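Lab notebook: predicted structure, single chain.

Context: the supervisor wants predicted structures on file for every construct in the current expression panel, including those that have not yet been purified. This is the next one on the list. No modifications to the sequence; it matches the entry in the shared construct table.
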Amino acid sequence: MKILITGGLGFQGSHLTKHFLDKGHDVTVLNTYSEHSENHLDALAAKPRVVWGSVTDKELVRKTVRDHDVIFHLAANINVDESIKLPYSFVDVNVYGTMNVLEAVREFGGRLIYASTCEVYGVNPGMDLLNEDAPLKPHSPYAATKAAADRLCYAYFKTYNLDVAVVRPFNIFGEGQKDGQFGALIPIMVRRALHGENLQVFGSGSQTRDYMYIQDLISAYDMVMETQNSAGQVYNFGTGVETSVRDIAEYIAKKMGVTVEYTNSRPGEVSRFCADLTKAKGLGFTAKFTIWEGIDNYIAWKKVQKNKA
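Prediction complete. Output recorded below exactly as produced.
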């Protein structure tokens, strides 16, 4: 099968690229060039066809989407804090970039699987678990642009009968995730701990998330691709278990011999996310890794990377 992955050399995308190459598929990647993406490419034993460029380039997207059976649209600006500083950039990439992909798929055909996010839900009081019908109440420019793109995908299904499914992963972590400026919580904490630095938590640390290890998400994407009646559907993927930031910090700190410091809360942050996985389980999905197993795997990988440096 001919598969295109936009953002296929990012964190999630590089794992997905490896997965489909290992399964023998013909994989093309559309990705903006950076040292980070080049490192992900170098780490792949089998190489995809790589098109360097942005989803904001309408003609490049059009040429790249053509002749592919399945398009996974993962390319996005993703950091909440960065979106507060650079909202226009997030609109350009996440909304207009998605529009370019949708228009290309409308022209040339193929199935589209869009990577949304749990951040689109915002705060929904009274809902212990968020199902796919929960109202979208995004709290940050990042979340708002993902919600807009998410609903654009559904609109193209309804208006043009486009074969598009939307995946809303909850908080994903794992090997290859950014750990520097605008990086993710667990990688940042592990990097700091490896350098003997104390861990910093915004607010009280009572905020909770449904953290899912990257390998479980890759299995989820594969299940959606193998589901032939997924057009117009939205799927949550997570573990169904919420863990506090404080517990994660204390676990990493204890394991790596540092302490935890608490600082001011961040603007735009949501207090809790946890997935209702009823639809995902209907596809046969169950997360195989606990958050603690995933963190242990990540720490072991990061130590190897540090020793290579």
